[in-house]
Amino acid sequence: MTTSSSLLPASQVLAEVDALLDRVAPRGPDMDAGERLVLVRLARRVRGRVDALASLVTAEAEQAHAAEKAAGAPMASWLGTGETLSRREAAGAVRQARALGSHPAVGEAAVAGKLGTGQVRAITGVLDGLAPQLNSEQVAHAEELMVGWARELDADQLTRSAGKVLAAVAPATAAETMETRLQREAEMAHRQRSLRFFFEGASVRFDGSLPRLAAEAWIAQLDGMAEQTRRTLLERRDRLAVMPTAEQRRADALIALIEAGGKGKESWGGRVLVQLDYNQLVAGAAGAGLVGDGRQLSAGELRRICCDADLIPVVLGTHSEVLDVGRSVRLVTPAIRTALVVRDQGCVFPGCDAPAARCEAHHIIPWWAGGRTALSNLALLCHSHHPLIEPAHGPLRDQWQLHIAPDGLPEFTPPARIDPAQRPVRHARHKRRPAESSPTPAAASPPRLDTGPPTAA
Question: What are the start-end ranges of the H helices in 22-86?
Answer without folding.
Answer: 33-63, 66-71, 75-82
